[in-house]
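Aim 2, interim progress: modelling of the magnesium ion-bound target.
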Amino acid sequence: QAIKNDVEIKGAFKQYGSNIVLNGINLGVKQGELLTLLGPSGCGKTTTLNLIAGFLEADEGDVYIKGKKVTKVPPFKRDLGMVFQTYSLFPHMTVYENLSFGLKLRKVAKPEQKKKIDRALELVKMSGLENRYPRELSGGQRQRVAISRALVVEPELLLLDEPLSNLDAKLRHELRAEIKRLQKEIGVTTIFVTHDQEEALSISDRVVVMNAGKIEQISSPTSIYNHPDTEFVFQFIGKSNSFEGKITSVDSRKISVQMENEITHVDVGNIMGTDRACKVGDEVKLYIRPEKICIAAAAENVSGLSLDLHKASITQLNYLGTSWEVAVSLLGKPLQILTPDFDSSWQAGSEVYVGWSPSDIMLIKK
Ligand code: ADP
Ligand code: MG
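Predicted structure of the complex, ligand included:
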């Protein structure tokens, strides 16, 4: 294989009593990439990370770091830096002492320690706060120090378990941009855990979507969002609308689906699920994201779409600052639309046209 994996998990199973927590995890993390484990609470993200860190051994399966099997190797021999959601720092030690701890263990000489600590604090913009105790720092500063402490030993691997979950929204945005910059700057292979889909999309090279101990999809953020493999990924990763219909024709490029007495088209590449062989007569479910739907007062104003225009009526309008959230009724069912284009004459009850491109609608067999 040409692609070099820094970390690999092969066939991991883990069970607590009757609770199957990891149900066959196979995963490769490439050298220098930032890979995110994303999924709802309880899906097995921390368990997977603990397997890589060595805090936990799977019932079945192996872990490899740099091509070496480490399944039985204890955490302190795995050369990792770790950051957790809370309690990452030693409370009775200053910032400087927190950072020197790992260096002392590795028998780094004092002057060399100072150099490394200065640089590690500079990386996270915490220079000058060496003598503070964790209780004298804000939540964001503490996590900066925790990241700095993980990096100061120059680990082969950086593991971050929901490091931003306890911070307020603004700080969370700032710090995630910083982690991304820092990670690219030093090039350390990083596994980041979060349950926040926007955070995962914004920070990652690749995202692993997990659900109930299984991996649903591993892809780039844009593929995860625009071309989800499964219904779970579609629904978990963003807002969605869904319809039901029946296939009326299939050719090499498009599938036609009848919904009540209207027809819509779907690109053949947009089928989700394990069974992707579609034929006429199949009952299907269609999914589309609110911002992929165009809306206009007249049919000819729906930009660039000759196909798939449907008459609908507005039921509710919400102003969101950068866009409008428009709820319409289409074929008697609710449809959510997010649009920057807004006609000031619209109100509840207005008749409008809605449309979408066959490339923006996803299909799954029922
Ligand atoms: P996540 O990090 O995705 O929220 P975890 O990996 O922490 O999920 O946990 C996955 C599942 O395993 C949960 O149902 C959790 O209750 C269970 N679990 C985790 N650790 C233990 C343990 N030590 N004993 C029993 N059940 C556990
Ligand atoms: Mg967790």
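Residues 94 and 131 are 5 Å apart (CA to CA). The chain has a mean pLDDT of 93.
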